[in-house]
């Protein structure tokens, strides 16, 4: 956020320290301000200038790695569980930081904070099932030649480097722990780099875990402030898991050192996610109502700042007006303002720069779409509309699905969505696929045959599909919610990554080796290895 001399500074504002090389250290300058988006108050600063990041990575690799890999999967799972238990005891503190630094309502903070605790607990539980093993195995030994004694087996050996986790601003807690849970369970030390603008929550949580002495030395580090030369010191055996915009992700993928050293990279980037209303779902039908409720929830939850949020609302042309009216009516009931006021159900976006970017996005999209809902005058509760980073929920609409590419290409990271009418089934699927590769799409229909058809048609361009017939209309957790047991990621512009997915997520942190040996040698190896597919 661009701050000026007028920005007030909180009495308890502090410089965030990084935990690197087993000690807390601050950059040589005060650095970038972290603000309360409701009024611009500076809450903290963060800088990585002058920090020795090469030494930090070496420490993680040489101290944290061996310490972690001396433990079995089950022992590491226990540590992951202890982190979850500790974080759960201080939930209210995390909610408060999320309110102040991210403008989160309680419900928004719960997605981030409770989501991270739930994910850690989940990996503690399924990781325990891997028992005393130190390796993974994929399948069972197989005979490779006429000699029955010559056999083969795919074995996963944990990487011997450091896992660098670079996270986006919108999930400072969940982004940290959903990655760290898998990496720690795999035996790979973590160096986490939260987005600077909301690093406070991540830093406080890491501080609590380090202070509690749960993890061995070097297992968990955090870098607050810009990445500086971090990537220049990576080497074979390290892994980078990145979440953020497609542009930054592409820069990381193309980074010379990463390419030269063959460092593993997983990219979770942005996405033009769609929700599709089936042709059968007439106004007043359960599918119609579930669809409208979900679009509104996705537009307003975390003020639309979820990578999985619904951006494109695909509806049968004959029902476009009814859908638009129903969404607009529901949006008119959303109370926007300072989340310190309990009546507020949508807070600001993360800072003024983000507000500017959202407004600019709406302006650009308005060249091809019309505004269908925008509350005016707009007066956020208990806040100043000029000084706070508030954006009203905004619905746009296209008159038809023809041409007009911008809605399929421009991610507006805020409470904004566009209604796109489609002609028929084939048109609906073609329009959904124009997102260029997305994290998630949801399809609402009472016709399970149509849902199955949509699953096949959208499968190649999506990482996750939520197929909602009325039987699960109330029981699914939501279009935008990522579950630890299922894979998260999407093809194309969404980055092509895969995270989580239960124990399958461990493979990113293991080298899969095709072992060829005698039956006796392979049995000895297999005895040390756990099969994650048997979870
Ligand atoms: P961003 O600007 O791309 O930043 C993401 C992270 O990358 C931050 O920690 C940032 O650090 C760091 N970074 C910036 N430049 C870098 C470089 N040259 N080398 C290494 N790291 C670098 O994204 P954002 O604004 O924080 O997040 C919003 C975007 O993330 C949206 O587009 C959203 O769709 C996407 N997102 C995707 C997912 C997913 O799972 N697919 C989840 C959440 C968000 P600084 O903050 O210090 O600059």
Task: Describe what this molecule looks like in 3D.
- By secondary structure, the chain is an alpha/beta fold.
- 35% of the residues lie in helices and 22% in strands.
- It has 15 helices and 23 strands.
- The strands form 6 sheets. The chain has a 7-stranded mixed β-sheet, sandwiched between helices.
- Helix 6 links the parallel strand 9 (190-193) and strand 10.
- Bound molecules: NADP nicotinamide-adenine-dinucleotide phosphate.
- Residues 166-171, 193, 195-197, 226-227, 231, 243-245, 248, 251-252, 268-270, 307, 411, 413, 439 line the site of NADP nicotinamide-adenine-dinucleotide phosphate.
Structural class: alpha/beta
Low-confidence stretches: none
Q: Count the domains.
A: 2
Look at the structure and give the mean pLDDT: 95
For the largest beta sheet, what order do the strands appear in spatially? Answer: 15-16-17-14-13-18-19
Indicate the CATH architecture of the largest domain: 3-Layer(aba) Sandwich
Number of helices: 15
Q: What general form does the structure show?
A: globular
For the secondary structure, the number of strands is 23
Helical content, roughly? 25-40%
User: Main beta sheet: strand number and arrangement?
Assistant: 7 strands, mixed
Name of the level-1 CATH class of the largest domain: Alpha Beta
Radius of gyration: 24 Å
Q: Which molecules are bound besides the chains?
A: NADP nicotinamide-adenine-dinucleotide phosphate
Q: What's the CATH H-level homologous superfamily of the largest domain?
A: Aldehyde Dehydrogenase, Chain A, domain 1
Calculate the terminal CA-CA distance, rounded to whole Å: 45 Å
The fraction of residues assigned to DSSP E strands is: 15-25%
CATH fold name of the largest domain? Aldehyde Dehydrogenase, Chain A, domain 1
